Amino acid sequence: MGAGVGAVVGADGISRCPWGAGDPVNTAYHDSEWGMRVSGEAAHLERLTLEAFQSGLSWLTILNKRPHFRSAFADFDADAVAAFDETDVERLMADPGIVRNRRKVDAAIANARATVALRERGGLESFIWSFRPEPATAPRTTDDVPTTSPESVALAKALKKAGFAHVGPTTMYALMEAIGLVDDHLEGCHRRGCATTLP
User: Fold this and answer.
1) What is the rounded CA–CA span in Å between residue 90 and residue 80?
2) Considering 41, 46, 51, 151, which one is annotated as catalytic?
């Protein structure tokens, strides 16, 4: 994907964001999930965890490993992952089905524990959504899509204060895009506007 690329019309005649117009796994994710609101604690913890594991890697790598991530991390049940011990860490570090990075594995467990603790403050879902910005104009090209925002900086800071790890502003902006806090589908993309308007 080059700089400043607009929506791309695929062989099927459908206009998409450039990153969603190539590999069929990316296309399926772009067309059915990216930018749409998810519901529930586990769904939010999954997206947060996967975005953290993606750091420094291609998103396609994460998508291809996603079913195994779900299995390895107990379907992102926060209570179950929060109870992981050193034996579980060793199991995960020996598992080729996920990204074997000790810092990221440790962060995933810490984040599950922090998620459990957040229930006293309304829970992870409402916490994340409290940083939703006002809707913005549709980006025309990839150059118009930011990598951070004031809200993602604030969310990252607040999550770190709440005990979360590996949640920098860029990673949190990617999370915000993925779950519909911001709609960064390009102008002309058939999925533009797919994010729910519900609070």
Assistant:
1) 16
2) 51
Q: What is the pLDDT of residues 35-59, one digit of tens each?
A: 999 999 999 999 999 999 999 999 9
In the annotation, is 173 catalytic? no
CATH number where 62 lies: 1.10.340.30
194 labelled as ligand-binding?
no
What residue numbers bound the domain in which 70 lies?
Answer: 41-132+143-178
Q: Does 119 fall in a domain?
A: yes
Between β-strands 8-9 and 15-16, what pairing exists: parallel, antiparallel or unpaired? antiparallel
| Inside any domain, residue 68 | yes
Residues 184-195, mean pLDDT to the nearest whole number: 93
Of 29, 34, 129, 173, the catalytic one is: 29
* 20 inside domain: no
Strand partners, 15: 9
pLDDT at 142: 96
Give domain status of residue 74, yes or no.
Answer: yes
Q: What is the pTM of this model?
A: 0.94
What is the number of domains present in the chain? 1
In degrees rounded to 5, what are phi and psi of residue 137? -65, 145
- Residues with Cβ within 8 Å of residue 53, at least 6 apart in sequence: 62, 69, 98, 99, 101, 104, 108
68 assigned ligand-binding residue: no
Whether 1 shows a pLDDT value over 50: the answer reads no
